[in-house]
Amino acid sequence: MFLHLGGNTVIPVKDLVAILNLETTKQGAATREFLQVVQDEGFIYRVVEPGKEKSFVITSDTIYLSPISAATLTKRAVSFKNIIEEEI
Q: Which residues contact residue 47 at a Cβ distance below 8 angstroms, ignoring those fewer than 6 apart?
């Protein structure tokens, strides 16, 4: 299953590590530093233009900045997980 992050970007749900609210998490110094380091290292992929990000999604190899809220992305990911568990 894939998770749509906005724009034309989808990721495999199996690669998902975390979905975080950008506004609340960037208030912490450690998170701001983390985001700056991964941006400097080239690990951030912007799904949306700067200033319109609502969440960041961490996968096994990339961090995505998404215009979709963390709550909405989490609901989508959980619904995929529930579908998969029902099929097993």
A: 5, 6, 7, 9, 64, 65, 66, 67
